[in-house]
Write a structure and sequence with these properties.
heterotrimer, A alpha+beta (88), B alpha/beta (774), C mainly alpha (217), A: alpha+beta, Alpha-Beta Plaits, four-stranded antiparallel beta sheet, C: 217 residues
Chain lengths: 88, 774, 217
């Protein structure tokens, strides 16, 4: 269940268009900064396959200039150690 | 595997929060009004104040609560101790509440096995056993062993039940192992306990000297305040005076190593230098100081029933000066390993009238077979030059535990103490009997056992029942094997109130699940006389019950409803207001409950609505009454006492066969025996296991490499553990160091139960061992 | 990482174009030719410098060095980075003085960037580990793959100080990498003045197995 967060830079002047486009996409939630030309995007996909598909979709967005990942969480990563590592 | 819905929202909130934080560092001043609208945001956190659960610094924290779980921690910006900053233990403290093996049900030993029972049944069993033991063996066959991590109400009801109602002075706490020498140091030098300065001294001092304490790891938030001062100003020096090299040595301007135990000699040599250079503040000394000496050759407490009573005698300055002739820097250099030049340098810092000097110390000076003496000697230095009780000039005895001051010292949960005064004093007994509503003569005027003697009595069978709360003596008693075997003997009934299974719960006959920290309402008192209140912020799990209430439940079953009448809704404020009555004087007044609840900590004496920051200084302390600028009102002669205390060797020094010093202590990640902090993932992963630090040259001589298993052997026992070379700390040649947080390596099976004959505090820093490759 | 690389690439071109145009504009817009030279304490120098220095350099904030460009230069988390800028062909340590820029950082006009500060200045044979990038072509395709690098957001709870996710070997100087304008933007901190980093931040190395506590091994 990958959850990721990004700082998204829109193309010049396209902040509100990008915000609309992102919020319209499945598994995505975005909100805008009040006083800078950037958005925060949080994605929440059911599995790694869907995550890969989402990444391709994001790449194709016209209004998106760049995406900087700041947070990544993936329940599916197995850690080895004493006992079973993570609960659940 | 599906994530639970609420956990997923939580992770999404965390994701958004981290992106916002990153954006803030790229675009200063950026704001995001829209992020609270994030779908499913669990952003509903309420913040409640509390003192940190861990060290004696007493940082104020804000516990973030979502629903009925603690989910986050912030430093409390309103608390003057730490001004919004914590350390890694504090920041992750709430995670210690949620270890998988948290004890939530009472257990009773039946036919050798621990069986879960309803807690009310366990309390019945405890009360019945107490009654039975008292009737068979007398009132002094039952004992309570508590803790400097007890809240103030915990200790108060324990003292009231055992000393007042039952009439036995078998009440002790683990602070005997931590701060007793500091207390006797205060009492012999000043007549009153607890530091005269406060943390604000850090903002004024030019020179900081740490005396045998690794402050960067043990009181890190205070150490950061020192570093900040040094960075901001051009005239601040930090000297690390220690027996081994640590982070504190790395951060200090100068690191001076001394041979164990010779701090006594160096302190005297500094006084010798101060007098020789005529740096004595005669105006101060003539008005406010008197000179004394006590007995010498006072022993080490190694035998059962060891008894010692010091005899003080007044001397004059000339006799004191003559006494110091044995402590010239050149003579002291020979035994201490500290060069005469460095001794003179330290003396010059104390003697320089333009410099304000703050000395900090903790376990290095307290866990010492001459702990009372070394506390006296550092006060001597400050008294000779008059650098005391004014901002920046501060001999500051740091406390180890969060409430060793608040509970053990101020409530008086030691065999000889009462909340006001000592059991040997008739007025003090009468005051307690009155406030506790007990018939005259209820309180026994004779102290019974200090901690080491109490466990010896348990071993011998003079004590048959012991209730242990909030501490882990089956890891921390020195010469551990004797005391563990003693607890396991036939016809010894051990009750343990704790939050996680430990080697102490392993020997229990009854285990009570305890509420931890903010799962019960209470107060702690920190090193600088600051009392901090905390609410019951989250409910305790399962059947866990506050230690205070456990004692009240048992007390009622023993027939003492009258003394413990309070309801569960308001027992804490009632207890506080009753306790306050003991301290009703300008020298010790405590703030009322309402004030404690509202503020992030209140210093005592709290007089006419104001905190006393510097005691004995008439400008700040309304209890001063001699018309002078300084009034040491603790002693009958209204002076502070300089004691001529000699150097005497350690109880067991290295010899031909056992040729290494064994030193023990802590690391920043873990608190004491690790029962709480090892359940915090980030702390456990940063420091998963204990080790023995060996000097690299010693290791090379023995062919030991990093990580190799080494056997540490003393006359008491042995432990095999991995070597650490150039790890967290580096001991000098001839010394090894072991941290005691790891219950898989019970290093106290190797240590010695020698103690300071005056304070009865054991010396965990010095005994003799030999090493072998395992 | 590939997907955003293109975007970053585009962004870099954009920036480059932006600054190039700025510089080109700056040249003709210098001090007028027909005024006396050197009066008023050579005040024309102030205006010339102002014109030729990019804003990022003056304001001391430069978000251009980020985690993606950081890991582009590395083969796996912890590997020594390639040298992204030109060095002389006989790069042998005798002709280059890496420490001149990378010892203390600072803004370099020729690179139009803040020099990252090395956490290990005591290692003086720089080219032993750091090599230049003379070509982007591969000799032969490779199957090389590594583990993902430590990610951000490793705080144990919202707002907790993040643990140190990387090994401290050769990366034990927090201030060098996490503070100042040369720091990677996402890991730059403003609270470096507190001094005792490991008071709050302890190691929790993400590329190693997570240990779980159990009593009695």
């Amino acid at each position: 269940m990958p959850v990721l967060a990004y700082i998204a830079s829109p193309r010049s002047g396209e902040k509100s268009k990008l915000l609309q486009q992102l919020n319209a996409m499945q598994h995505c939630e975005a909100f805008s900064a009040d006083n800078a030309e950037i958005l925060i995007l949080v994605t929440d996909t059911p599995d790694t396959e869907a995550e890969k598909k989402l990444q391709k979709q994001l790449n194709r967005l016209e209004a998106l200039e760049s995406l900087s990942m700041t947070f990544g969480y993936n329940d599916e990563l197995q850690y080895k150690g004493e006992g079973d590592g993570h609960e659940d | 595997m599906a994530m639970k819905i609420d956990r997923r929202s939580f992770v999404k909130s965390a994701a958004a929060a981290s992106a916002v934080a990153t954006a803030a560092s790229l675009f200063p001043g950026i704001s995001f009004a829209g992020w609270k609208q994030l779908e499913g945001a669990t952003g509903m956190i309420r913040w409640e104040k509390a003192p940190c659960r861990f060290c004696g610094t007493g940082c104020g924290v804000l516990v973030g609560v979502s629903g009925d779980r603690a989910v986050a921690v912030k430093g409390d910006p309103a608390c003057s101790v730490n001004k919004g900053l914590c350390c890694v233990k504090g920041y992750h403290s709430v995670q210690a509440l949620y270890g998988k093996d948290r004890i939530t049900r009472a257990q009773v030993r039946k036919n050798g096995k621990m069986v879960e029972v309803p807690i009310q049944e366990a309390l019945d069993i405890i009360a019945a056993k107490m009654k039975e033991t008292i009737s068979k063996h007398g009132k002094d066959s039952v004992a309570m062993y508590g803790s400097g991590q007890w809240s103030i109400p915990d200790g108060y009801v324990a003292s009231k039940l055992f000393k007042g109602c039952i009439g036995t002075n078998n009440v002790e706490a683990n602070a005997r192992l931590c701060m007793a020498s500091a207390v006797t140091g205060f009492m012999t030098s000043f007549g009153l306990d607890e530091p005269m300065g406060c943390y604000e001294d850090i903002d004024y001092a030019n020179v900081f000297i740490t005396w045998g304490n690794n402050m960067a790891e043990m009181h890190p938030v205070l150490f950061s305040r020192m570093l900040a001062q040094r960075k901001r100003r051009s005239d601040v020096t930090i000297i690390d005076f220690a027996t081994r090299s640590t982070r504190t040595s790395q951060a200090a301007d100068k690191s001076i190593l001394f041979n164990p135990q010779t701090d006594l000699a160096v302190a005297n040599a500094i006084c010798y230098e101060i007098i020789r250079n005529d740096w004595v503040n005669w105006d101060f000394v003539n008005k406010h100081v008197s000179f004394h000496k006590g007995l010498t050759n006072i022993g080490y407490g190694l035998e059962d029933n060891f008894a010692f009573q010091d005899k003080g005698e007044g001397i004059d300055f000339e006799q004191y000066k003559a006494f110091l002739q044995d402590y010239t820097p050149e003579k002291v250099e020979k035994i201490s390993g500290v060069s005469a030049r460095d001794i003179k340098y330290m003396a010059s810092l104390y003697g320089d009238p333009t410099k304000k000097v703050t000395s900090f110390w903790c376990m290095g000076m307290n866990q010492h077979t001459r702990g009372t003496w070394i506390n006296n000697l550092v006060y001597n230095i400050h008294l000779l030059v008059g650098k005391i009780s004014t901002p920046g000039n501060s001999p500051f005895s740091l406390t180890g535990q969060p409430s060793a001051c608040g509970t053990v010292r101020e409530v008086g949960t030691l065999t000889h103490k009462l909340p006001h005064g000592v059991v040997m004093n008739k007025e003090a007994r009468e005051m307690a009997e009155k406030i506790w509503d007990l018939p005259a003569g209820s309180i026994d005027p004779k102290p019974t056992y200090h901690t080491v003697e109490m466990f010896r009595a348990l071993d011998r069978g003079d004590i048959r029942f012991m209730w242990i709360q909030v501490t882990n003596p089956m890891v921390t008693m020195p010469k551990l094997r004797r005391y563990r075997d003693g607890a396991l003997k036939e016809d010894r009934f051990i009750v343990v109130s704790d939050v996680y299974p430990t080697p102490t719960t392993d020997v229990a006959d009854v285990i009570l699940p305890a509420a931890m920290w903010v799962e019960q309402e209470g107060m702690f008192g920190n090193s600088e006389r600051r009392t901090q209140h905390f609410d019951e912020i989250i409910p305790p799990p399962g059947e866990a019950m506050s230690d205070t209430w456990q004692i009240i439940e048992v007390a009622r079953r023993l027939g003492y409803e009258k003394q413990f009448p309070w309801s569960q809704e308001e027992y804490i404020p009632r207890i506080w207001e009753e306790y306050r009555r003991f301290h009703d004087s300008p020298k010790h007044n405590m703030a009322p409950y309402k004030v404690l609840k509202a503020r992030s900590g209140v210093q005592w004496p709290f007089v006419n609505g104001k905190e006393t920051r510097w005691r004995y200084n008439a400008e700040y302390d309304p209890a001063c009454s001699n018309g002078e600028d300084i009034h040491f009102y603790g002693k009958k002669d209204n002076r502070a006492w300089i004691w001529a205390r000699p150097y005497e060797p350690a109880a067991e020094s290295p010899d031909q066969e056992y040729n290494f010093w064994l030193n023990t202590g802590r690391v920043i990640e873990h608190w004491h025996t690790g029962s709480m902090t090892r359940r915090v993932p980030v702390l456990h992963n940063s420091m998963p296991a204990a080790y023995v630090e060996i000097n690299p040259d010693d290791a090379a001589d023995m062919g030991i490499v990093n990580g190799e298993m080494v056997r540490i052997i003393s006359r008491r026992g042995e432990v095999t553990m991995p070597a650490s070379i150039n790890g967290r700390g580096v001991p000098p040649r001839g010394m090894v160091f072991v941290p005691f947080f790891d219950e898989s390596y019970l290093i106290n099976e190797v240590t010695l139960d020698a103690f300071c004959p005056i304070s009865k505090q054991p010396d965990y820093k010095k005994c003799a061992v030999k090493l072998e490759k395992a | 990482m590939n997907r955003t690389e293109r975007n970053i690439g585009r962004m870099k071109l954009g920036f480059a174009a932006f600054y190039l145009s700025w510089v080109l504009l700056a040249l003709p817009a210098g001090a007028a030719d027909d005024i006396p030279y050197g009066f008023d304490s050579s005040g024309e120098k102030i205006f010339a410098r102002f014109n030729e220095t990019p804003l990022a350099a003056i304001s001391g904030i430069d978000g251009r060095r980020n985690l993606i460009s950081f890991y582009e230069l590395r083969q796996y988390p912890g590997s020594p980075p390639k040298i992204p800028h030109k060095v002389s062909p006989s790069f042998s340590g005798e002709t280059e003085n890496c420490i001149a820029c990378h010892g203390r950082g600072g803004y370099d006009v020729t690179q139009d960037a803040y020099a990252p500060v090395t956490p290990h200045p005591e290692k003086e044979l720089c080219y032993q580990c750091h090599v230049p990038r003379l070509t982007d072509e591969l000799f032969v395709e490779t199957n090389w793959l590594s583990v993902p690098p430590p990610r951000l957001g490793m705080s144990q709870m919202g707002g907790s100080p993040t643990p140190i996710p990387h090994s401290l070997q050769l990366r034990d100087d927090c201030i060098a990498c996490h503070t100042g304008p040369g720091a990677v933007a996402e890991i730059r901190v403003e609270h470096g003045t507190r001094g005792n980093c490991r008071q709050c931040h302890v190691q929790f190395i993400v590329t190693e197995p997570v240990l779980e506590f159990t009593r009695n091994k």
